[in-house]
Specification:
This protein has about 350 residues and is an alpha/beta fold. The protein has helices spanning about 10-15, 15-35, 55-70, 80-85, 85-90, 110-120, 135-140, 155-175, 180-205, 220-235, 270-285, 320-340; strands at about 45-50, 75-80, 95-100, 125-130, 140-145, 210-215, 240, 260-265, 285-290, 300-305. Helix 7 links the parallel strand 4 (about 125-130) and strand 5. Helix 1 runs antiparallel to helix 12 (about 320-340), helix 3 runs antiparallel to helix 10 (about 220-235) and helix 9 (about 180-205) runs parallel beside helix 12 (about 320-340). The longest helix is centred in the middle third of the chain and has 26 residues, at about 180-205. Bound molecules: 1-O-phosphono-beta-D-fructopyranose.
Length: about 350
Amino acid sequence: MFEEDHAPVTLSEIYHQAASCQRTIALAQDRSSVFNRFQPLDSYTDIILTGCGSSHHLAICASFALSEMLQRPVSSVASSELAHFPDHYFSRNARPFVIAISRSGDTTEVRLAVERLQADYVASSIALTTEGNEVAHVCDAGIVFDECVERSVVMTHAFTCMLVGLYRAGDDFSGGRRAEEIRQLPRLIADALLKTEQAVRSIAEDQSISRFFFLGSGPMKGLADECALKITEMALDTALSYRTLEFRHGPKATLNASDQVIIFPVEAEMPYIDDLVSEIARIGARVLVVAPQSIKFSDSRVSSLNICSDDNPLRGDNLLPAFYAHFGQLLAYWRAAARDLNPDAPRHLARTVLLNV
Ligand code: F1P
């Protein structure tokens, strides 16, 4: 039986993310010397981020910010895919730079992916972890984000910190053009946490909602995936994630009036959001559009949430996932609480997932 007072770990880590992220930014200068060992980045044919679960999701988000900052394609692939199908992702003469992400630092598939890419492509690699040593041990260099070591089973503030650490590294490589925006992230998050909690609790506690759909494209797909994973892990509820417009290509067929759809729109798709939400509302499902500006919708089943307390200083979509990460964490936490589940102890889950190899 869940009792709020007895399950403080996950919630306190969620609430700690503004402070730990502030620390990530303070430490970024020292950490950039580790990234600088891999200069010049032009010597690599590919830059690829990899991880499992939440680490994979933050890799998806980061890959879009890094592509923009480095002005070249940066991709992200789940570690189990890279370990087992590397030639699908690289040409024969590739020389990749691999950024291997793992909160625990010990996840087997992440280590296997790095080892495979070293063996097949003489890949260079850096490990981003918060503790552990299996992944760092096989990489050429490592950065330990010890400001966000977690006791919770599910990843929360480590997601935000490692993502912000990657934003800073990418921005340092490209002349610091977005440093001021990144510097504002901890304040934005600190200002938003309570507002977000108030907004998500009514949804979390609404027992008439049977399923959650999270929609996002580009950098927001990693965020949508992460929100769905948080609900799945903490609240053991059905939560699915789709690319925003892909939702209309099939998944929409299953929609019911008891579903809650949450959309993180990107600028490029704003012209289509009105039609999409009307289509969903016509079926009877509820829609929440989370955006950095308030949007008015005529249908009472559609609402928008702007968690930014004043003018949004973040340009474009690419830095928003770190700002929004706490949304899914708080929604999942309070959904678990509403279902009498202890978010600190999700069933069948371990903090570190290992394979017998
Ligand atoms: C991340 C991960 C989490 C998941 C679970 C097991 O692994 O898969 O996403 O919530 O707790 O671990 P890592 O970041 O430690 O490699």
